[in-house]
Amino acid sequence: xxxxxxxxxxxxxxxxxxxxxxxxxxxxxxxxxxxxxxxxxxxxxxxxxxxxxxxxxxxxxxxxxxxxxxxxxxxx
Length: 76
Description:
The protein is α+β, with helices and mostly antiparallel strands. It has helices at residues 2-11, 29-44, 56-62; strands at residues 17-21, 48-52, 69-70, 73-74. The chain has a single domain, classed as Rossmann fold (3-Layer(aba) Sandwich), CATH 3.40.50. The model has no long low-confidence stretch (mean pLDDT 83).
């Protein structure tokens, strides 16, 4: 629940940039899909996202560019 509230709060003021750390980790599938929809709309309106995730399917779907880290170093 805390994760959902934090996520909704990040969108409330329509910021140009949203930074999220593992935003979907504690969310169920339905909540994740709703969050992805909101983030997609944010991007469509010209907003930017920076987020960390271990979920490769989300990374592929949501990103225009990616940076992969291993042991704190950029590997891709």
